[in-house]
């Protein structure tokens, strides 16, 4: 099935195939990107069904009443939500393990994942505000929360990844948020929002290492295209078909 087709209200349910893993996704969604990255990093065969989130099919809401992507499906098993998805994938497809064998480190990876909401709140606060003072406050909030990650990664001392010499599940949880932070500078035309690599040198080394991972390269993230989609999303008119075939 074409990964470039979007399903919306009124569309027919695309029949599943026995034993074939499917992800219900949306190309511009950071949460769906998390699961796609884990699928690709672990080389798990799968198919993609893209959903128009502003005009969801009824059959998709039956799969996940929350109406959110990502959702994984294989036969009669359905797993929604990116953190649950990625944990489940790592357990069911244990090769190239992403979760630490150390219970303490695994617990802290979950803490780090929960803290992403702090970054996201400041990020969205800066993007959705038109008040210069509020935008600046949220930019400072983003950098404050990045300092938290800078300090935690530096303290681990076995990088370049949060997982050490190899990425762990948190690396793929954080990347979709981190890589979208330049939206603020682009959309608000505010150079002060740019992340100074000298201010966060450990995160800069991490980002360079992440960009070299095949899963990251294959995902084809383009910041300008993503920002263009986000502008439409904020206005309530997201163009899901943007750049299809390109």
UniProtKB/TrEMBL annotation:
Catalytic reaction equation(s): L-dehydroascorbate + 2 glutathione = glutathione disulfide + L-ascorbate; methylarsonate + 2 glutathione + H(+) = methylarsonous acid + glutathione disulfide + H2O; RX + glutathione = an S-substituted glutathione + a halide anion + H(+)
A Pfam family: GST_N_2
Domain GST C-terminal intervals: 102-230
GO molecular function terms attached to this record: glutathione dehydrogenase (ascorbate) activity; glutathione transferase activity; methylarsonate reductase activity
Keywords: Oxidoreductase, Transferase
Protein's UniProt keywords contain Lipid biosynthesis: no
Residue span(s) of domain GST N-terminal: 19-97
EC number: 1.20.4.2, 1.8.5.1, 2.5.1.18
SUPFAM superfamilies: GST C-terminal domain-like, Thioredoxin-like
InterPro entries to which the protein is assigned, alphabetical: Glutathione-S-Trfase_C-like, Glutathione-S-Trfase_C_sf, Glutathione_S-Trfase, Glutathione_S-Trfase_N, GST_omega, GST_Omega/HSP26, Thioredoxin-like_sf
Entry superkingdom: Eukaryota
GO CC terms: cytoplasm
Biological processes, Gene Ontology terms: glutathione metabolic process
Family named by the database record: Belongs to the GST superfamily. Omega family.
Function in brief: Exhibits glutathione-dependent thiol transferase activity. Has high dehydroascorbate reductase activity and may contribute to the recycling of ascorbic acid. Participates in the biotransformation of inorganic arsenic and reduces monomethylarsonic acid (MMA).
Protein name: Glutathione S-transferase omega
Lineage: Eukaryota, Metazoa, Spiralia, Lophotrochozoa, Mollusca
